[in-house]
Amino acid sequence: MLVERDHIGIFGKMNSGKSTLMNLLTQQETSIVDSTPGTTADTKITLQEIHGMGPVKLFDTAGLDEGTGLGEKKRKKVLSTLKECDLVLLVIDPSSTEFQTEAMVLEEARRLDKQLLVIYNLFQAVDEKEIERVEEQMPYINFHRRLRLTATNPAFRQPLLEFILENFESKNQQLELLPFVEKDQFYILNIPMDEETPPGRYLRPQAMAEEYITRHWAFPVSYRMDLGKARKGDPSERKRWNEFLASLQRRPKAIVTDSQAMDIMKDWAPDDMLLTTFSIMMINYVSRGKLNGFHEGINALEHIKAGDRILIAEACNHSRIKEDIGIVQIPRYIQQHFPGVEVEHNFGREFQENKELEKYSLVIHCGGCMISGQKMQARIRDLEAIGVPFTNYGIFLSYIQGRKSLDRVMVPWK
Ligand SMILES: Nc1nc2c(ncn2[C@@H]2O[C@H](COP(=O)(O)OP(=O)(O)OP(=O)(O)O)[C@@H](O)[C@H]2O)c(=O)[nH]1
Ligand code: SF4
Ligand SMILES: [Mg+2]
């Protein structure tokens, strides 16, 4: 099961004490602290259980005010971290002379609709005039709750935790993975293993589906479809499938299939059973129920033309061999159905910048099982902001088998 964690990010200028604050929260030397400005280069991530709040992911970021070329790279990283945060902790050293960086964080947080709390890190005894000066220069800061502390002093850990608990409202509600699952019913998981299937374990969406069904007192039953034989029309595979279905005393309620097998499943799945795919299940879960957006995005294919570009996005870097879905199967379908349309790829946890994304007519995203809901939602927000439609592997592979197939795999999610 994916653990849902609130994401808390620490932001501010260099040497404001961000890493010191991170270490105050974790009670250990999680981040390197040093008086050299720019000590934290990359975002430092740590997992932590906060009493009263549950599991969280903490992000310590680089200072946003570094002036060099490297500073620009760091800034991009920090702003991409900010997109994924549920709570922004803005650390301010009130003895600073100007507050442009802090004002920029306030503005970004407002634009992205993030919760933000202000931490005044007092390096020396508090000087009220300094705080007044900060608040005069940044009037919007008054919309946010503010706490004064000294990050080097462990006695401030408890007040800091209480401050976060009192003022932060978690919006990460747990979503049902397979909302249509009913107690005492059978559910078929169609898992055609191939050369890419790792030995010794299921893929994450498969393992999650099996766990979810079992946890809900229902019965997962797996079928390893021989896709090669099925596609060749070898009658022995169809017979095996039919015998498998007949051997279950109670009619299964639904089939969750590997999306690649939709070319077979669209004909083989009996009409009285629901049908959907692991990829659709996963993207619904990771996007926290934003499946409709992915469903609507497929319409972009209705008016796509030669020369347009499609981006295939996978959220991890698994090894890709032979009939890989992202680099072979989907591009092949695109070539067949939409000649002249160009295909590009984005693999891994980092997504392209908006100005790069703008050139695409459609983004086809994998199930996203290796990234957090926050990261997925940040991607969706970016794509919506620039008006680039997006869809998903399972939706695309069903659509390519005809609208009827797509309508069918969407039924369980209505
Ligand atoms: N006296 C005092 N020193 C502090 C306090 N907070 C941080 N420092 C010192 O300030 C320096 C910078 O602290 P860091 O936590 O590394 O600051 P940072 O914001 O992470 O800085 P960068 O990683 O460079 O962006 C270190 O020498 C800390 O020991 C504080 O509350 N009081
Ligand atoms: S992140 Fe995407 S490509 Fe990687 S295993 Fe999960 S669904 Fe597949
Ligand atoms: Mg630091």
3D structure, described in words:
This is GTP-binding protein. This protein is an alpha/beta fold. It has helices at residues 18-26, 69-84, 100-111, 128-137, 157-167, 204-215, 227-232, 235-247, 262-268, 278-286, 291-297, 325-337, 354-357, 373-386, 393-399, 403-410; strands at 6-12, 44-50, 54-60, 87-92, 115-121, 146-149, 186-190, 219-223, 254-257, 274-277, 309-314, 342-347, 362-365, 390-392. The strands form three sheets. The protein has a six-stranded mixed beta sheet, with helices on both faces. It has a four-stranded parallel beta sheet with strand order 8-7-9-10. Strand 13, helix 14 (373-386) and strand 14 (390-392) form a beta-alpha-beta unit. Helix 15 (393-399) crosses helix 16 (403-410). The relative contact order is 0.10. Magnesium ion (MG) binds at residues 18-19, 31, 39-40, 60. The site of magnesium ion (MG) has 6 residues, from helix 1.
Question: Concise description?
Answer:
Helices cover 38% and strands 18% of the residues.
Structure keywords:
binds iron/sulfur cluster; binds magnesium ion; elongated; GTP binding; alpha/beta; HydF_dimer; binds guanosine-5'-triphosphate; HydF_tetramer; GTP-bd; 414 residues; Rossmann fold; single chain; 6-stranded mixed beta sheet; 4-stranded parallel beta sheet; 3 domains
